[in-house]
Amino acid sequence: MQLGNDLKERKCNSCKLPLLKDGLLQVAYEDGYWWHRQCLGNAQRQLKNAMYLAKLYALNQAIMEYREQRDQL
After folding, report:
1. How far is CA 51 from CA 46, 48, 55, 60, in A?
2. Cα 25 from Cα 22, distance rounded (Å)
3. Parallel/antiparallel/unpaired status of strands 33-36 and 27-30
4. How far apart (Å, rounded) are the C-alpha atoms in residues 36 and 14?
5. Phi, psi dihedrals of residue 59, rounded to the nearest 5°
6. Contact 20, 8 (CB under 8 A)
7. pTM for the structure as a whole
8. Which of 15, 26, 55, 70 gives a 20 to 30 Å CA spacing to 33?
9. Domain ranges of the chain
10. DSSP letter at 21?
11. pLDDT averaged over the chain?
12. What's the rounded mean pLDDT across residues 31-52?
């Protein structure tokens, strides 16, 4: 398998643009998908932020439930 030939038809999993542009190859392969390095970095950052917000939401819910139970006593 020649890497350049294999990637000519592939597109980035995020932006859907061709991976190989103007002969430049800045790609990453992760979890079975091909990405531009910048697109992968953006996706990882967004996932990290979403996980952080989800944890904050869960913590807020737990605090609210605790306060409700405390007030009922």
Report:
1. 9, 5, 6, 14
2. 9
3. antiparallel
4. 8
5. -65, -45
6. yes
7. 0.70
8. 55
9. 3-72
10. B
11. 88
12. 94
pLDDT for res 3? 53
Task: Please give the structure tokens belonging to residue 24.
Answer: 């430049």
- Dump pLDDT digits (tens) for 8-36: 788 999 999 988 877 777 889 998 999 99
Tokens matching residue 73: 């006593």
CA distances from 33 to 17, 23, 52, 56, 58 (A): 13, 20, 24, 30, 30
CB 50 within 8 A of CB 58: no
CA-nearest of 2, 8, 11, 3 to 35 is 11
**Cα–Cα dist 17/61, whole Å:** 40
Which of 12, 63, 18 has its CA nearest to residue 40? 12
